[in-house]
Design a protein that fits this description.
Helix 1 (about 40-50) crosses helix 2 (about 65-70). The protein is built from five helices and seven strands, in the order ββααβββααβαβ. The chain has helices at about 40-50, 65-70, 115-130, 130-135, 155-160; strands at about 1-10, 30-35, 75-80, 85-95, 100-105, 145-150, 165-175. It is an alpha+beta fold. Strand 3 (about 75-80) and strand 4 (about 85-95) form a beta hairpin.
Length: about 190
Amino acid sequence: MSITLTTWSLEQTSPSDLRPATPPEGDGIAVRRAEVPSPEFARFLYTAVGGDIHWTDRLGLTYRQWQEIVEKPGSEIWVAYDRGTPAGYLELDAQENGVVEIVYFGLIPAFRGRRIGGHLLSCGTARAWDLAERWPDREPTERVWLHTCSLDGEHAVANYERRGFRLFDTKVERAEETRTPGPWPGAHA
């Protein structure tokens, strides 16, 4: 079945663009970098977060391809934890000319709607801006960008805009609807 797919691209061009969210109440939420590159952990996060919102582009990747993603210099995964349990993640990809892309961002379904997403996005965006401090061979960040689409969560664009991202491109196209895979086959049948 064919659907209309809208893709929005948003950016920040200065660290001062970031408008951080108020952290969730309580002391159980922590955002930490996954410092040991792990293809298994990266794939777990990808499927757990994106399984119900049509993230399928990486499902066919081999172990080696996942390894190349997580071991790429300037690639970082930042994970939100709720009392020690992974709640969601944000993946950064350092590109040429001081550009950093937020490649993936989202929460595992059970953790959505609890103000964790805005906090994670704030922390991850701040880490995009200071990425060169952790990767001395990288140029200082000049631009942070991302894209989201109409298959992502209904509050995605508004969350990005609240954090200070500005829309710079919109594309509308026809696409074939894919079955929502769940975090593993049959999980959301």
